[in-house]
Amino acid sequence: MAEGAARAKEASWAAGVLSTARPRRRWTDAVTLLRHFALVTFDVNPTALSAILPSTLRPDVRRLADGRDRAFVSAVSFRDVDFRFRGLELCRVSFNQTNYRSYVLGPDRRRAVHFFETTLDSPLSFIPRRLWGMPWYPGHTEIEATWDGPRCVAYRHRCTGGRNAVDAEFTSADEARTGLDGFDDLEEAAAVLTHPLEGFYRSPSGRLGRYSVWHERLRPSLGRSIRARYEVFERLGLVAPGQVPHSVLLQPEVEFDVHLPPSRG
Questions:
Q1: What angle do CA 131, 134, 139 make, to 5 degrees?
Q2: pLDDT tens for residues 171-230?
Q3: Residue 25 lies in a domain
Q4: Which of 161, 86, 85 is nearest to 128 (CA)?
Q5: Is residue 98 part of a domain?
Q6: The CATH number of the domain where 118 resides is what?
Q7: Model-level pTM greater than 0.85?
Q8: How many separate domains does the chain show?
Q9: Half-sphere exposure (CA, 13 Å, Cβ side) for 101?
Q10: Which domain holds residue 41?
């Protein structure tokens, strides 16, 4: 009975998250189209993740089919197309970007993500770092993707830099799957992995920042990893070289709203 009630609660929560209405956009908010979207998730040791998170955040831990309790981190890569602030619609820029994040429970116990850092292939990377203490850094990034409708034929991601090298290649998975390991169903997996709307980050001064995004529900295809090396996760001691991702999710494009400026966490 208790297990059934817990699953029903999770299902209700997931449905609510995935149907969140679009907030009214302010003139300070940013709008962008994310093209060639790839979300590459690794399962990691919860204790190792907890040790490097801010003290007010805790890993969102789930039990895999093999009985291990694991936390999760993701590298999210895409090309920002026509990124602009609503108050400056004529000023638009495009660039490649990669976000490195973990899945956490926030100070209010709500599910969220914590951003370790972001790589931006643009001289503008210093702006959010200077203005708001966001851990954004420059890095030459190449993203090449070929699509057949929603299906990804080939996806290649390369990044060179002093702290954020990437060598990754994917294609669509051959088999159909009805779920992802550690989640009751695809609805729950989608709500946790693809639909976190609130994010935290730690500034160089140690202050916890907080901001939110909005997007329609993603409907990605399942990918298959050919190789996936992310120097950020390896440097943090979370992912071993050559570790196979827990999952790869791919989508041609999706529009995002980014609610700015950030607030204190």
A1: 105
A2: 998 776 778 999 998 889 989 999 999 999 999 889 999 999 999 999 999 999 999 999
A3: no
A4: 85
A5: yes
A6: 2.40.400.10
A7: yes
A8: 1
A9: 26
A10: 2-19+31-264
